[in-house]
Design a protein that fits this description.
The protein is an alpha/beta fold and 106 residues long. The chain is built from four helices and three strands, in the order ααβαβαβ. Helix 2 crosses helix 3.
């Protein structure tokens, strides 16, 4: 009769609101000086030690987020897959949650 019915409880946000949230999150990271932007990040090889040396040069490396504008470079993906504190995303997966959960977005 009046039993439970499966339904989605998701709330859909407008694009304007999502963009505004992303702007605010990026502005907050910029104010904290925890945002680094590179035009072209070249990885010399697929070895993890190269990425580890590069990340250790930064101040705070508890969690690092790498966002690639196009397709993720195969060398970068292989070099970071064993590092639990490094998250590599394509630009399509970039959202407010990933910015706020990572300590240093690149």
């Amino acid at each position: 009769m009046h039993g439970p019915k499966p339904r989605s409880h998701a709330i859909k946000l407008q694009k304007k609101v999502r963009r505004l949230g992303l702007k605010i999150a990026l502005s907050a990271r910029t104010a904290e000086e925890k945002l680094l932007i590179f035009e072209d990040l070249e990885v010399p090889s697929h070895k993890t030690k190269n990425i580890v040396q590069y990340i250790r040069q930064m101040d705070d490396t508890k969690k690092v987020l790498l966002v690639d504008g196009g397709d993720i470079d195969k060398k970068l993906k292989l070099a970071t897959q064993n590092l639990h504190y490094v998250n590599v995303l394509p630009s399509i997966g970039f959202n407010v949650y990933t910015v706020s959960s990572s300590m240093t977005p690149l």
